[in-house]
Amino acid sequence: MPDSVDLLRRAGEAVEEIIARIPPGQLTGPTGCGGWDVRDVISHVTIGNLRFAASISGTPGPGRGEEEISGDPLAAFRSSQAALLGAFAGEGALQRTYPSPFGELPGPALAQLRATELVVHAWDLAAATGQPRDLDPDLVAAADQMLRSAPLPRGAGAPFAPEQPVPPGATAADRLAAFTGRKIPGTQG
Taking every pair of C-alpha atoms in the chain, what is the biggest distance, in angstroms? Predict the structure, then answer.
C-alpha cells in the first residue's frame, strides 16, 4: 500500500479532477451530505485542508463556521491542497503527533485520515454531479481499511448515517460510500 502522504496527494488529485468537471450550474445542486449542495461540499473539503495544514504547521487556520469559499472553487481547492501537502512536507511533520477528532494521531495517520475524508467526499461530488463513481481502487481500499478499523459514530448529530444497502455487483467505491451512510444511486433505502 502506498505511503500516507502519497495517498493524500492522490486523494486530492481525485477530488480536483471531479471539481474540474463540474459546470457552474451544478454548484447549487443537492448532495447526499446533510443538506449541503455541491459548493458546500467543495467548501468543506477546501476549508478542511486549510485547517489540517494549520494544525500541522502550528498556525491559525480558518475558524469553525468558516465553511464558505468564494470565487473559483477549483482554484481554492488546488490552493488548499498545495498548502496541506506543503505542511506535511515540513521538517519533522510526519514524526509529530496532532490532535484530531479521534484523539492524538501521528503524522502518517493524520495524512491517511485526511485522505480518507477526501475519498469519501470525492464520491459525494461524483455522485451528485453524475460523474463516474469508480474511484482509484488503492484509495478506496485504504479509506475502507481506516473506516472499518474502529466503530464509526453514527446517527443523528454524528458524522455518519447508518450503513446503506448496496446493489449486487456494486463497485468498491459504492460499497465504501454505503458503509459511511451514503445512499447509492439506483438503490432503495
Answer: 49
Q: Measured between alpha carbons, how far is 140 from 146 in angstroms, rounded to an integer?
A: 10
Total domain count, the chain: 1
Q: What sign for the dihedral angle of Cα 52, 103, 153, 4?
A: positive
Compute the C-alpha angle 167/136/3, nearest 5°: 130
Helix (H) or strand (E) holding 57: helix 38-57
Please report whether residue 157 resides in a domain: no
pLDDT digits (tens), the chain, 189 positions: 459 999 999 999 999 999 999 999 999 999 988 789 999 999 999 999 999 999 999 998 887 766 677 789 999 999 999 999 999 999 999 999 998 877 899 999 999 999 999 999 999 999 999 999 999 999 999 999 999 998 888 888 888 899 999 989 899 999 999 999 999 987 665
CB-based contact 119:9 (threshold 8 Å) = no
Strand pairing report for 97-98 and 105-106: antiparallel
Residues 6+ apart with CB under 8 A from 15: 45, 77, 81, 118, 121, 122, 125
CATH of the domain at 81: 1.20.120.450
Residue where the block lists cell 519533522: 92
Tell me if the pTM is above 0.90. yes
- Amino acid occupying residue 59: T
Domain for residue 171, yes or no?
no
